[in-house]
Amino acid sequence: MSKSMTETQSLKSRGWLIWLPLGLFALLLAIAAFSLANPTDRVITSKLVGQDLPVFDLPPAIEGSGGLKQADFTDGQPKLLNIFASWCVPCIIEAPQLEQLARSGVIIHGVAIRDRPADVQAFLARNGNPYSRIGADNISSIQLAIGSSGVPETFVIDGQGRIVHQHIGEIREDAVPLILEKLEEARQ
Predict the structure, then answer these.
(1) Parallel, antiparallel, or unpaired: how do β-strands 131-137 and 108-113 relate?
(2) Contacts of 91 (CB under 8 A, 6+ apart)
């Protein structure tokens, strides 16, 4: 067997190597397509659901809003803790539902995140004020302490100050029955 024949056979036997980069690319493409078709859960739920609210004491967000502290949630009556901001567009979307809940007797306390009093006042004037008390969280300290990842978010708090439910994102009309159900469960 001549040397050139051996080299030719050797090249033929390694010919599959030319397809290796294309095969690896196809594998990566298949993994990417599978990941896009089956996304992981991107909602970050609070690890504090089922636990007590952390101790906090926030100053009033606007004059006359009373401020907000952990003790405001321990009087035996379930409440909502809504985290919002005047610069938050989804907060505008949920405003009618919060008004509806407040009209039905639900006590809603708010936490204004990284906001200025004049902006909070203007937001409430435009979109209604369903809040019994509003605390100012200018450095997102309580937001981070309760495991909130954005605005708006709403927590159902039982009468002992325990977080029993977390609603991530704006409350749309179809979510109101679940919020009321969780409040009723928190009464028991």
Answers:
(1) parallel
(2) 84, 85, 123, 127, 151, 152, 170
- The DSSP annotation for 26-50 comes to HHHHHHHHHHHHSPPP-----TTTT
How far is the C-alpha of 162 from the C-alpha of 49, rounded, in Å?
8
Kind plus residue range of the DSSP H or E element containing 153: strand 153-157
**Whole-angstrom distance, CA of residue 73 vs CA of residue 182:** 16
Q: Identify the sign of the CA torsion 45, 47, 52, 53.
A: negative
Give the residues across from 156 on adjacent strands: 80, 165
Is the pTM above the cut of 0.85?
no
DSSP character at residue 112: E
Place of tokens 């990417």: 32
**Per the structure block, which two tokens stand in for 21?**
């980069």
Strands, sheet with 153-157, edge to edge from the N-terminal-most edge strand? 131-137, 108-113, 79-84, 153-157, 163-168
| pLDDT tens, residue by residue, 134-170 | 999 999 999 999 988 889 999 999 999 999 999 999 9
Nearest-angstrom CA–CA distance, 110 and 66: 11
Reference 100, options 165, 157, 180, 4; nearest CA is 180
Eight-state DSSP code of residue 137: E
